[in-house]
From TrEMBL:
Residue ranges of domain BTB in the record: 73-140
InterPro entries, A to Z: BACK, BTB/POZ_dom, Kelch-typ_b-propeller, Kelch_1, SKP1/BTB/POZ_sf
Key words of the record: Kelch repeat, Repeat
Protein name, as recorded: Kelch-like protein 6
Name of the coding gene: LOC106557142
Amino acid sequence: MTSNEASHSVYSENVDLFSASQNGSLYTLKLWIMDAKKDFNNSQEIDIRVKPTTLGYYVTQGLMQLHKTQQLCDAILVAEGKHFPCHRALLASFSPYFRAMFTRPFRECWERQVVFEDMASSILQIILDYLYTGRLLLIPEIAQDLFTAANRLVILPLQDIIGRFLADSISMDSCLEIYALAYAHNHHTLLRVASRHITLNFEPLSEHESFPGLDLSTVISIVSSNKLIVSSELTVYQAVQNWVRSQPAEHFSLIKKLMQQVRLPLLTSEEITRVQKDIIAEYGHAHLQWEQLDGVGRLLKSGGLRHGMYDDWIVSLGLFVSNMQGGVVERLKTHFLGFNLQTESWEEIPPLMYLDSSGFLSVGHKLYVSGGQRLNGSVLCNLHEFDALTGRWMQLPSMSVPRREHGFLACQQKLYALGGRSCRTVLDSAESFDLEKKSWSPIANLPFAVSHFASASLNKKLYLIGGFSHTRANGLAHRGILIYNTSVNVWNQMPLAFQCYKSTAVAMDNGIFVIGGLVEESSRRETPGTVIRALISGTHKCFFLSKDGTVSQDVAIPDLPILVLPPCAVQWRRRIHVLVGNTIYQWKPGEAHWTRSRKSAPNTRVTFLTVVNGVTLKVPKKTLQPLLREASAALTALWVTDN
């Protein structure tokens, strides 16, 4: 390696070209190869102590020797006037490109020379060295040219190696060029890495010096992405306008194509006024096309919000008094309080009628509430949906049976209602709701009736942890975990060394964090044949459950700072957040303590009885909410035209 190479980040790969394993006992081999030009029958001796060598090793070594001495070469690759004798069989074995060239009726099939007009000889030399030796010395200065050549020649292992190198070395200065490279060659792995970098940093990257150098199709692929982290569509418009201004071609045809990717219906009235002035000033004959649209129409015509146009909220479900006479509660409502995790501010969501012990979950920008119990004791089978885009509740088809204290989980565009209670009956039934078909279907029954358990969804499986089982063998205590495989519609059981009730389960990484709840301290049986009565108390304790359903001691979770029943816990950005009264505590795996949030819930004009359940919800940013929730139609800009 030269001193210049040593000063760079060097990536080295040693590859066994034939993936051959070397097994067996040691044996002695001494091989004296006389002059390679002499007759191959000359004497050979064995004396070198090595492991048994595979056939692949001999083939590799033989090809290296033939290449070094330029023997039996039947093809010559030419780049920048430099000739590289090589072997067709080797090239064809690695590259479908060369295999087609040498086996089909192309000129190169009968001519020895293959000339590459636009490839550097140094790049071709590196590729041939890799093919013959399996070794690759890779530095940033040549990585992109080498990647282009490897893709052109369809050398798959080399593409993967360089793709990994480029992905590992991606930066703000290189990600646009790497994205363009990956997009041009349709390299999915590298494209995914570069795309993520761009979507997270779109605004500064759109002002980077390399952005104007992207071609039109590459720019379109970027600005059309739903994943852009931009709070306003004006950022996308400005990026498009700046790119067009830097191009030598006729600008209006470019802006007309690119403005099809700008979601004009998502611009506020002030923003669209600014865009309109720009268009008129830049292209006098052009104007905006308008249409009368309400909030739902805006959303449909725009194609939806980009990822950065949402805030993440923790939404907690609680019960509050909406009417009290003479100290007696006459009316209760289900109340939803939202904590904006980006701004650390508290907001409210329109309430529902009173529903105690409901199932509660979120999918993207929608909340779902299933079942629950009314103030008069009746249990419901209703399913309600709240859409954060429209700010409205609607009722969906009901479950087959009323449920409360049940499991309610989402997995692969389906909602699952599991076990629970129906009036005085404990349930072992389960059903799923298809979010696309808007219909319920029964699934396999639980092994036994159970309620008051913690539940979580992880890797296409549903976990029900602890709870009250109501079986003769176990009485009220269920020391176990039920695991439902959604792919095969089968339940499995795992033991649990202790009881837990009304805990909260949070799935993260490769396991489930079980937070607080109730535990049995002691129990007794009143009379033979009756159920067990237990002394139950709250716990600050938490534990970690591996995906196989076993409790892991390797993950230490600190005790909750304050006892809360039931705990309202969610996961966001690899942190667990627990709502305790009007305060949020957060913890990240590896930390020794829970940290209290600086912001407390606002003073409200309602009297809270309890706060239960919590989920994270995607909510449109405040500037967009009036546009999306507008009930009456208004003139809305859609695209640029010159008609």
